[in-house]
Amino acid sequence: MIHWFRKKKPFLIVFLLLVALIVVFFWQRILITIDSGEAGVLFRRFTGTEIDKIYSEGFYIISPLDTMYIYETRNQVAFHEFDVLSVKGLRIHLSMAIRYRPEYDLLGILHQSIGPDYLQRVILPQIESVMRKQLGNYGAEQIYTNEEGLLTNAILLALDEVGRNYVEVEDVIIRSLELPETIVTAIETKLSQQEHLKSYEFRLKIATEEAERIRIEAEGINRYQSIINQSLTKEMLAFKGIEATKELAESQNAKIVVIGAGKNGLPIILGGQTFSTESAINNKAQAVQSSTIDRITP
Fold it and tell me: How many Å apart are CA 63 and CA 66, to the nearest integer?
């Protein structure tokens, strides 16, 4: 072995130097590192793309004849702007933010069918196409005010269309929607007038309800007074007079009682001030009526 090694030593040195040169020159194609949040798809020179194997994070050694394509699997954001024509030909400028990522399990098929630039090939063109098709059936005011959620519906349809191409678009956010200044001013003026009209209708409804409340209150008072007038008979007044006389007689204040001097035979009771029994009856009846009115008033 030693004799053979000495004999082949020049050839071995040349071979090792060639291998070292190949490693130095092709080290980026041989020593592959897949970082966090990434995944790889291997293309073999003689067998093609490995669609059934996804290379996860880590370190790999491959043949320099093969190529490792690395995809970012985290959520990514792309900002995009384009113009949409309304049904009347008015140009509307949309600025959008698109959150997307490739489907991890279908990464090999995505690479074989579309390639690493799937954002430019699939996502943006398809979203533009769907948005133009959907919004082109509406007027500028309908789009600007998002009438009946037409912008939301267009975005949902675009998400569904893009999702058929091995990518996942999580959301499409409309950052701004620009119209000609004159059109914006006209729309805002119209919306302001509509809000004023709604405010006037609301105040009118409140005034109508308040008038109805006052009418019901007046009818209640009128019915109550009618019932009171019907119930105030002579017998009832005499009974109330007896009650008032009894209460005044039981009072602790000093008083003078005049028997038989009042109308209907009721006494007159004099204290610090002079009161007739009839006045006391009337005052008590008025107090009862007032307290009852307070109870029925809303």
Answer: 5
Return the minimum-mean-pLDDT range out of 50-54, 75-79, 158-162, 190-194: 190-194
CATH of domain 76-179: 3.30.479.30
> Is residue 281 classed exposed, middle or buried when 0-12, 13-18 and 19+ CB atoms within 10 A define those classes?
buried
Half-sphere exposure of 182 (CA within 13 A, CB side): 2
On the question of pLDDT at 277 being above 70, the answer is no
- DSSP letter at 50 equals -
pTM of the model: 0.57
d(CA 269, CA 280): 10
H or E element that contains 9: helix 2-30
Listed by start position, the domains of the chain span 24-73, 76-179, 184-231, 233-298
Phi, psi of 264 (to 5 degrees): 65, 15
Which pLDDT does position 21 carry in this prediction? 77
- Which of 284, 97, 260 is closest to 172 using CA atoms? 97
CA distance 86 to 135: 7
- Is residue 199 within 8 Å of residue 207, measured between CB atoms? no
Output the CA–CA distances (angstroms, integers) from residue 107 to 32, 53, 112, in the order listed.
18, 9, 9
The C-alpha angle with vertex 238 and arms to 224 and 227, in degrees rounded to 5, equals 10
How many residues in total does the chain contain? Answer: 298
For residues 68 and 60, the answer to whether their CB atoms sit within 8 Å is yes
- Establish how many alpha carbons lie within 13 A of residue 138's alpha carbon, considering only the half-sphere containing its beta carbon: 21
Q: Provide the 3-class DSSP secondary structure of residue 116.
A: coil
CA atoms of 281 and 239, how far apart (whole Å): 9
Q: Specify the residue for token string 């050839």.
A: 11
Report pLDDT for 96.
93
**What are the pLDDT digits (tens) for 174-224?**
988 888 777 767 667 777 777 777 887 888 888 888 888 888 888 888 887
